[in-house]
Queue: 2 jobs
Job 1
Amino acid sequence: MSAYDILISEADITPNVTKEVSMPESTNRGALTEAVYYILLSVFKPLHGYGIMQLVSELSNNRLSLGPGTLYGAINTLLKKEWIELVDTTNNVRKKEYIITDLGKEIIKQEITRLKELVGNGTKISGGDKNDL
Amino acid sequence: MIYKFTKLFADYEKEEKWLNEISQKGYAFKGYSPFRYTFEDEEPNKYTYRIQLLENLPSHVDSVNYIEFCEELGVDVVDTSGRWVYFRKLSKHGIFEIHSDLESKIKHHKSIRAITSITAISNFVIAMSNFTIGIITKFNLWFGLLSFLVFIGLAALSYKQHLRIKEIESEQIID
């Protein structure tokens, strides 16, 4: 036990809060933002920046329109986290395309599980319309 | 026809608002130099304008990548000034915002607050050194006073930016 471990247990902080390396992650990550969730979904097939922006807008019924600052930052964060990667463009050097990684797919899987739990509890407790599911 | 306006803005959000108001009146923003905005005749509201402070100068590789990325999204550069970039996008393509999420918006405002604070402190240092060097001439006194006034102005501006960040952050909690 290092001094760090002692400090954490005394302070009652969950240790997995700031882990951002590309190792198998713990399941307690918390929510993805809508933008990140939809960007990940957009790149299950290779897609470039403009395509991602369009598809996210479509998927969200025009609710989410990603600004360039937001989208650029999100893509770079997702690249760093290795949830998406650049597609090897041997033919066309101009437009960079992105694709989801296996880690990214795992993240989506976990997120869907989390969302199902939320929707399930919500409809159960608030007695929502059964047809919504 | 070319139109030139002389204006000084302390708040980039107000500057954006002004550029877009002029655009509504039928003039497209064409270029910027200190205190000087140039416009040309254009159909009303053809473009929407946004201003962003980049993390680096436009010539830096990260900035070049970002600007290229923006161009793919139909966002063009009108002009730059230091790390500031003036963007435009055709209004008919819909709402144009650089930051559509609170996190990147806050990051942007924090960068702006940082550069304002640093410039403020530099002016303070210049003022103090002018007031305290061994031989104080009239020039030192006036220059020091001027620097000190700039420091006060920028410090106030920095505080205003700080309050704006707090305002945006409080929105985040609800989201």
Job 2
Amino acid sequence: MNFRILLVEDDEKLATQIVGYLEKANFEVTWLADGDRARREDPSPYALIILDLMLPGTYGLDLLKEWRARSEVPVLILSARDHSADKVRGLALGADDYVTKPFWPDELVARVHARLRRPVLGRSTVVRSGSLVIDLDGGTVEVAGEALSLAPVERNLLFLLARRLGAAVSRAELVDIALDPENPGSERTLDVHMSRLRKKLGDEGKRIATVWGVGYRLEKGTSG
Amino acid sequence: MKLRGKVALTLGVLIVPFTVALVALYARLERVAIEEAAVDAVRARIEGAGEAWCERLLVRGQGRRGGPMRGMRRASPIFPYDAAHAGLVPDAPPMPEPLREALDEGAEVASMRTELRGIPMLAIAVRLSDIESPCETVLVHRPIPPRVVGPALALPLLVSIVAIGIAMLAAGPIVGRIRRLTDAVRQSRDGDAPLPTEGNDEIAELATALDAHRQRERAQMDALRARDQALTDYVANTTHDLMLPLTVLQGHLVTMRDAADPATATVVRSALEESHHIASIVQNLSAAAKLDAGAPHLHFADVDLSALIERVAARHRPIAREKAVSLEHAVPETPLRIEADPTLLEQAVSNLVHNAVRYTEGGGHVAVVLDRRGEEGFRIRVIDDGPGLSDEELERVTERRFRGGAARSRHPHGLGLGLHIVRDVAERHGFSLSFERPQEGGLVVELAGTRGKRAA
């Protein structure tokens, strides 16, 4: 599925580059160079709008305000103005995020992916990583179709990582949420519990990656 | 002490002793006059009596009864004494001790206050050593005028007190004007209200001079503010103008890198790294201008720290990938929000990550971790396994324009502005900033604070 993205940017050189990056990342891009045309455009067909704040004759935030009156399409602001007031006002008016110029193409594409990905993650209660299946609501864990019995601490740790699938979780947060923070030595015992959990997961134990300087991550992976 | 009090005290300190000294001097002069008159009278009577004056005194004294008061109406009696101060006539009173001592010390005339039947008298002893006779010394008494005691002193003191009172009253209007001038100076801000300069005296001149000085200062401050604003606007506009071409440049370099042969791609990667660094410098210049301009240019608002960390990590991930440096980040499960200036705080965190990625060799690691600390606190840590800092560098690390040894050897250009901005932003927000060198090497920089806390 190719997401459709609306780009509102008046600088031709930059707009051409951005269209190029996004199309390379398999997005369909519609580019508008002025605020008046953007104002008349219906936002609903688009999965995301990338909006430059400084358009000739139009202030980007005014456009945003008008769109928000009729649509909830995610909006990513592009700004060269290093003004906190603009960013704060933009977020208050309903922008979802902002990217400050100069930016790398990879950075922009990554932010677009992040914005488009979030609603999907929020709805899922069954998390899959390889042959590991974790039912967050049901409270069950299966590896290669077989139910797995875990100690309460091990379950807490695995479920926390599963809720944040693909994202690194800090040691401090793992200790705070999954272990007893009042128990001295909890930081040290975290590694012990993780080691036990990995062993119980067998081959799929490698799905729990150690993240240098941070803590742990449950890696995404295809089933089977 | 207020001015009127000082005037009263000064007058009191000057007038009262002066008055007392004047009265004492007058009393002394009067006494000397009485002494001299008595000596003159005695000598006149001696001359009038001729050589037998002493015998005549003795004879007269033998016949006199009732002591020295007798005959005072006509002429005070003269009592003769020998060299041992013994009276030579029966009714001669004993030579008073003070007079005796003064005469023994060589005084020609000695006197002292005394009383005879309640009447204040001056007893005067006169040595007659220049006249050969048994009458070595004579003693006479003279009445003291009644004004040389209390009432005479009281009048000048009363006059002094009245003078002090009048002076304080006269000082009233002057003190009042000075107070009005002081109040006007205190209440006026930036010279917006004129000072009371009415009058044609020294106070009016002072008020006029103060007013002129305030107006000059106000004009200077206005000029400085205008210049600061112009400079801030200039930096903001210039950095804004640089952002777009930098973005386009970075985009072209990425395209070139992807299309180039391996050797050229290496060169392009190096150019990408430098362009990333230039972008960081430009953003730091903008932040530094804002910080130097002060509080009005800071904009505190509700900031999603988790989103901020994710943006910063995303910004530096491409360059980290180019350098083969692993860049990981972690944020709490639920968003963590604080009150901060979003641009400045993001720039500060970005500077820490930028430095960590820039000074870590390929194959190294950088991590950015956001944790909650209790109910109200947060902690951002930027951790790397790069060259770290020496003891000296750890101490000096946040001086403006300071850069560590590794930085100097690897990157001879640069400002060292980034860490200064981090420290400045931390101070403005009331956050703590610490640098730690772990045992295993590298560097841990920690920025911590509480939600809603802001430095005064």
